[in-house]
Design brief:
By secondary structure, the protein is an alpha+beta fold. The chain contains 5 helices and 4 strands. It has a 4-stranded mixed β-sheet, sandwiched between helices.
Length: 139
């Protein structure tokens, strides 16, 4: 698999058993009026493959991965690029790019380390809604 494929444009790879991650997907579905962002869980075959390609551990996912024509973004950078893709007022989050990268990622990873304890987790990936199914990438 190449580093970027047009079929994976604006693809968000997320932890499918994490309540916080699933809530983030539902938030994006509600606010992505253009329907540009698509999704795949890290636990899916495609998710495992992309994790290997980008150096993430699919058995211990510690960051969201967001693929765009501009590149692959992880952790705090992924969150900001998702805000950019949502457009409108959400792009105001890009002012956080002024915060040094290390500090943004430190905060992101702090939340990521505690997400299961604070928000909970499922034993298996969530059952997707019809809206999510339309925007899920499986291969």
């Amino acid at each position: 698999m190449s580093r970027y494929e047009p079929a994976l444009d604006h693809l968000m790879l997320f932890d499918g058993v994490c309540h916080l991650c699933n809530a983030s997907v539902r938030f994006i579905l509600r606010h992505d009026r253009a329907g540009r962002i698509r999704f795949a869980s890290i636990q899916s075959p495609l998710g495992h493959s992309l994790c290997a390609c980008y150096g993430l551990d699919p058995e211990a996912p510690a960051a969201v991965l967001f693929l765009t024509p501009a590149g692959a973004f992880m952790a705090g950078d992924a969150v900001l690029e998702i805000a950019r893709a949502l457009g409108g007022w959400w792009k105001i989050a890009l002012v956080l790019k002024a915060v040094p990268h290390g500090q943004r990622d430190a905060l992101y990873h702090f939340v990521a380390r505690h997400r299961y304890r604070w928000f909970g987790r499922e034993e298996s990936c969530m059952l997707p809604t019809t809206n999510l199914l339309e925007r899920t990438v499986t291969e």
